[in-house]
Amino acid sequence: METLQNEKGQISIHTENIFPIIKKFLYSDHEIFLRELVSNAVDATQKLRQLSSFGEFGGELGDLKVTVSLDEEAKTITVSDNGIGMTAEEIKKYINQIAFSGASDFLEKYKDKTDDKGQIIGHFGLGFYSAFMVASTVEIVSKSYRDGAEAVRWTCDGSTEFEISPAERSERGTDIILHIASDSEEFLNKGRLQSILDKYARFLPVPVEFDGKTVNNTSPIWTKAPSELTDEDYKNFYRELYPMSEEPLFWIHLNVDYPFNLTGILYFPRIKNELRFQREKIQLYSRQVFITDEVKDVVPDFLMMLHGVIDSPDIPLNVSRSFLQADANVKKINGYITRKVADKLNDLFNADRKAFEEKFDDIGLFIKYGILSDDKFWEKARNFVLLKNTEGEFATLDEYQEKVQANQTDKNDMVVLLYTSDRKQQDAYIESARRRGYDVLQMDNIIDAHFINALEQKLEKVHFVRVDADTLDKLIDKGLNNESVLSEDDQKKLKEVFDQVLDNKMLNVSVEAMPTDELPVTITMPEFMRRMKDMSALSGESSFYGNFPATYNVAVNANHPLTAKILTETDADTQKSLVKQVYDLALLSQNMLTGADLTAFVRRTVATL
């Protein structure tokens, strides 16, 4: 083999300095230099292992690992491996001859492949050059695994000039030595490097050592077959990822190799009735290298509240591996995850319905949001999404419709599903409905206003009405009219009394024939208006209905003894006091009586005792 001579040359690009281009267009986050260099070292190590398995390397593999070293005094960071190493010719080929002719040509060639952040899309093998974001000079000392290979040193100061010379290295492998620039001395800190390694190297497949200890788990459970794992393995891994979280409800092990490669584990956390989009709870890896926790598009939006890990080499990233790119594989992966989650939920429902019902208060938010946002998910979820009534009883959509159809079908052959959004506040209305033999659903989930709308569109001849949205006879209008004990003239007079005393244009007063055991006055907001306001409140954005002044219907019970007393009262002050009392009583039943009005009501009540 020819003896290596000292050599100087120029990196094969025709521009004064490519590195500012790399910094500006490829890497926005300087800390990823360590991810890139450690990943390259892992690749070199794995290549040697592959060559050995192919019979192309007959030597001893030894203790394969990557070592990161910090010398604060010398102001260097070194990434070392004992992988395949490089010859001088390989360094010239892979390091010097960057695959473009110049910075201007490079940008011109790829101008149509940049995203809206100016990030160049694609893979160009430029990871090594991220070293120049933090280093004023970079050295490579390498010795190839090939028999008789000589050690070689490559040095570059960030210009296009390099120097190759013989080096001293007894074992195969590569050292990348970074002489840290003055503006990047933040990285000459043990804690800083440790945090970067904890973030990016946590599950690399080759042991990575730093500060005398191994920093990674080389065989995370998503790389293993589900048959090899126990429930405790999954729970322990969850604790490793999220040490401060409650135990998950259950999990889904993802494993597919066609038409794309994807592995991972998604956990269903306990979230109760909170719509918390913590979009940093699912971590995306590529061959066990951490990429990002921004997994939008890869994971369906309704599952962004899940926790866990996804690992795929087939997810397209830009050159800096910082941003996901739109791609057919991303859509396929998104669809696959949706299908797997739906299948898992369906299996849980069919295998142990009681256990599924016990979890539903936690997982209902996922399922309902999925139904709202994904028609394909709805096709499967309609079989296992559950409705819960105020008695705590669960039923599927079909089961519930069958249960209430006989008693809750109105004159238009529409099945009316009554619901409450606040069981305590609407208790009086719930009790009135029960006396009629009606069933009331508990729909107090934060997205239930939207969910109800979706079900009305997806189900035939079904209508949801909140139990306090109207008087009981009108909630489920069966075309039966109660007789009034008051004449039409008396009803007209009674309405005039209430209009005069209440004197509020936002109140629509009517006198209606209701059972005597109903309240003398009932206050309701029309279902449409209330639902629009609920949805507006959830979206956090102002809307026409959200900003529209609240209008209430005030139904006076013509058949209640108190209304007859009001009508026949001759003293104007007493009559006014009675009207205020029954009206405030109706407000109180809706939890709408507050402040000075509540104080006045209490005083009037005490005075009559």
Can you describe what's shown?
ATP binds at residues 36, 40, 81, 86, 101-102, 174, 321. Keywords: ATP-binding, Chaperone, Cytoplasm, Nucleotide-binding, Stress response. This is Chaperone protein HtpG. By secondary structure, this protein is α+β, with helices and mostly antiparallel strands. The protein has four domains: 7-214, Heat Shock Protein 90, CATH 3.30.565; 221-351, 2-Layer Sandwich (Ribosomal Protein S5, domain 2), CATH 3.30.230; 385-475, Rossmann fold (3-Layer(aba) Sandwich); 488-607, Up-down Bundle (Four Helix Bundle (Hemerythrin (Met), subunit A)), CATH 1.20.120.790. The chain contains 19 helices and 22 strands.
Secondary-structure blueprint:
Layout: E1 7-10, H1 19-25, H2 32-54, E2 66-71, E3 76-81, H3 88-96, H4 103-109, E4 135-143, E5 152-156, E6 161-166, E7 173-180, H5 190-200, E8 208-210, E9 213-214, H6 231-241, E10 250-256, E11 262-268, E12 282-286, E13 289-292, E14 307-311, H7 328-351, H8 353-373, H9 375-381, E15 386-388, E16 394-396, H10 397-404, E17 415-420, H11 427-435, E18 440-442, H12 448-458, E19 462-466, H13 472-475, H14 488-502, E20 507-512, E21 521-524, H15 527-539, H16 544-547, E22 552-557, H17 561-568, H18 572-589, H19 595-607
Parallel strand pairs: 2-8, 12-14, 17-18, 17-19, 20-22
Antiparallel strand pairs: 1-6, 2-3, 3-7, 4-5, 4-7, 5-6, 8-9, 10-11, 11-14, 12-13, 15-16, 21-22
